[in-house]
Amino acid sequence: MKDIILYGSKYGSCRQYAQKLSLQTKIPAVSYKKAPAFADYHTIVYMGSLYAGGVLGLAKTLRKVTLQKGQRLLIVTVGLSDPAEAETRENIRALLQKQIPKNLFSKAKIFHLRGRIDYHKLHVFHRILMALLHCALRKTPKEKWTAEERVIAETYGKNADFTNYEALDPLVEALQNNPVPECKKDPEHKSSPGLLV
């Protein structure tokens, strides 16, 4: 069985993380829009950018997925907020629970990464959305801001890059420490020691 990395990326951070992970692990990385059937895969890594509505492409990709015995799912989110903060992790988990079936969520291993934002490259719709959020924040006392709102206020109108490829290390370790399960030997077939059939 094979492994695969799928990614949902709008402005490039997530795609670059996926490509870097692919280089480190020799696992192919493809856009979620080109996702193959999952039946022949041992490990499915889904890396998706975080937006207000959730993780880009995640719900669509996992809508019809049922993990078979021996398969595993790793979900990696990429956003601006610092995942070292408990509040951020809790908010992301709540988004994920709304996007994917309960049985998949309970089996998935979840990782979080930080990406980047460049307001000059944002689509006009996203620029308007961020402007509206920023205006609302100016009317709210700073002490009431959430972790996500603090990041929006701090990075508004700027080019902020929190990309950190070393943060991929726990994910690489998780992939390397869970090898593909061995095939069962046919009891009637004699083979050399260690040969899988």
Structural account:
By secondary structure, the protein is α/β, with parallel strands linked by helices. It contains 7 helices and 8 strands. The protein has helices spanning 13-25, 58-62, 86-99, 102-107, 124-138, 147-155, 169-176, and strands spanning 2-8, 29-31, 41-51, 54-55, 72-79, 109-114, 116-118, 159-161. Strand 3 (41-51) and strand 4 form a beta hairpin. The relative contact order is 0.15. The model is unreliable at 180-197 (pLDDT under 50).
Question: How are the secondary structure elements laid out?
Answer:
Blueprint: E1 2-8, H1 13-25, E2 29-31, E3 41-51, E4 54-55, H2 58-62, E5 72-79, H3 86-99, H4 102-107, E6 109-114, E7 116-118, H5 124-138, H6 147-155, E8 159-161, H7 169-176
Provide a quick synopsis of the model.
Helices cover 36% and strands 22% of the residues. The protein is of the alpha/beta class.
Question: Termini distance?
Answer: 13 Å
Residues in helices, as a percent range:
25-40%
The chain-level mean pLDDT equals 85
The radius of gyration computed from the alpha-carbon positions, rounded to a whole number of angstroms, is 20 Å
Structural class, judged by helices and strands? Answer: alpha/beta
Summarize the main sheet. Answer: 6 strands, mixed
Q: Using the alpha-carbon principal axes, give the shape.
A: globular
Q: Strand tally, please?
A: 8
Give the strand content: 15-25%
Compressed to H and E, one letter per element, the order equals EHEEEHEHHEEHHEH
Number of helices: 7
- Residue runs with pLDDT of under 50 for 5 or more positions: 180-197
